[in-house]
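2024-03-11 09:14:02 DEBUG pipeline.ingest accepted 1 chain
2024-03-11 09:14:02 DEBUG pipeline.ingest length=337
2024-03-11 09:14:03 DEBUG pipeline.predict start
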Amino acid sequence: MSEQKTGAAPMKPSKPAAKAENAGTTNKVSGSVVKCEVNLNKGEWVSPESCAVFYIDDEATFPTIDFEIKTEEPGPYEWSWVIKWVVQACPQKPGKKRFSALTAKTYQAKGKHTSENKKWTADLNSQVIGGDLSVVVKAGTTTFKRKVTILAKEPGEAKVITELEKLTGTHAAEVSLAKRIFKQESRFRHFYSDEAPLVSFDNGYGLGQATKPVPSYEEVWNWKEHVKYIVKTVIVEKRGFAKDYLSKHKPYTDEHLDTETLVYYNGARDHYYIWNSKDKKWVINDEVVCDPDESNKGWKVTGLKSADKTVEKLRESETLKPKYTGRCYAEHIKNAN
């Protein structure tokens, strides 16, 4: 849950709608039907079928999708494509309908080329990305249109850990933290039950649910690129912030640095450690009391009597409400591991 905390998003149905199939494979989410806007398909095609569903596999390999038109028109043929994915948040319980995320966002990529060939094997700028892919071909005075959907298969915890461990040579500390973060944020899942990326209410994505720096289209859909993004970009940045904070007073330990990195990963509200100028050492911040039933919520208790700082008393308070805080996020992960 980076910065406090998200699929092809549900497409607005337009009738008629077709349940898409590709080599006998369909979206198997209970109650889910991949809907296709039939008027976006035009012309005679050899392949693929209208509204077909293709899958990025669990090794993050892009599917082979052959687009081929049937025409007597001579070349050259003008090919263009656009793929879009509208970001929508996921409920915690699988199989439920997505909802609007805190920030409206649509990922999009496009490309075009001219060819003498009536067939094009989809290559989306060498990116492994999903969503609704629309292809347009102009052959003389005839225009062809075809729309398909690209979803993805879950890699599973073992594959994710194997990918993480490839980075331990130069990023051992970050990999160690990433394992703890993935367990906390997503239980090592990258995709929701509709076979598109997890999205939190505040636009956190995939395994790490990170919000900043904002990930690229491929860092959201390609779980292997997502792992690199979390380890090499997000955690490196947050670790730098933590080091700057702790360097104001020395000494500090690797545990101090790891814990404050988790604080910054969640938005840096209320540090886990604060400097005790009298004893000249870093001490645990006792001005925040964490709710043990929440992963990152707690109460600011500055000025309260000791008797009023218990969880029981704070839960009874009509004025003090628990708030998201990096202090409690870090504590929750420390206690869970």
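2024-03-11 09:14:41 DEBUG pipeline.report Residues 1-155+190-204 form one domain.
2024-03-11 09:14:41 DEBUG pipeline.predict end
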